């Protein structure tokens, strides 16, 4: 599923591209738009051409694609999925811990809300599970976020552990390069096999006289053309890493060495990502005792184990 912001950017880009470059719509004024459903279901934006009228199926075009085939398929799945509820005032960037902070008494995710005082507004969390001993008792948002920041400070490993992690990342990087090369080789072999199948089916189409049989062959060829286009798209994305190991590693180690700095200075999206990378589940929070020690993710757990062994 897509994040709403990404979906909006995608739609705007597609709308602009269609309006500016595609005939006959490129002559339309900027005030004239295209139906959203038309934009979302067109394979044209993956860099391919499909037409039932002319019998064209996933033909590689000469125009630059806006999205990958994988993204296109995700869009179709999103279109056929369940509609999402509209945004609310107590969501968004004001409550980064919504859905992550949970009541320590009942385990239910804490609700976020705003209250209005005589001179300012106050952000807070509270448990709204009836029967819970913490029901209706508010907790200031800043207090919870401060306690979570203290938990993140404890995750920072020592320099020796960082050095060991660098060696481990080097090994993982080499494995990634090897895997990328193997994936490229496998994809090329599959493309060759698909080309042979298509050639064989085309030969059968030329020899066939039954209309039903011909339509069956054409349907199979269309499916193979789509599979071929998908493999070609995956082949382009399985290339070896463009940047070298040290350039990639610097950002990774910066995050592992000081996760709490990203928590203090990062924006909403980065802080949400940080929480998902650092903690394996929700953070139980007690109104009187603060945050309980949550389960951390494997990278920090592994580094913590190495540090405990005196590395």
Task: Provide a concise account of the structure shown.
The protein is mostly helical and about 300 residues long. The strands form three sheets. It has a three-stranded mixed beta sheet with strand order 3-7-8, covered by helices on one side. It has ten helices and eight strands.
Residues in β-strands, percent: 5-15%
Q: Roughly how much helix do the residues carry, as a percent range?
A: 40-55%
Identify the overall geometry.
elongated
Query: What is the distance, rounded to the nearest whole angstrom, between the alpha carbons of the first and last residues?
Result: 41 Å
Order of helices and strands: HHEEHEEEEHHHHHHEEH
Structure description:
- The chain has 311 residues and is mainly alpha-helical.
- The protein has ten helices and eight strands.
- It has helices at 4-21, 36-40, 69-79, 141-154, 159-207, 211-237, 245-257, 259-265, 268-278, 298-308, and strands spanning 48-51, 56-60, 101-103, 111-116, 121-126, 138-140, 283-286, 290-291.
- Strands 3-7-8 form a three-stranded mixed sheet, covered by helices on one side. Strands 4-5-6 form a three-stranded antiparallel sheet. A two-stranded antiparallel sheet has the order 1-2.
- Helix 5 packs across helix 7, helix 5 runs antiparallel to helix 10 and helix 8 (259-265) runs antiparallel to helix 9 (268-278).
- The longest helix is centred in the middle third of the chain and has 49 residues, at 159-207.
- The chain is elongated and about 80 Å long.
- Residues 21-32 have low confidence and may be disordered.
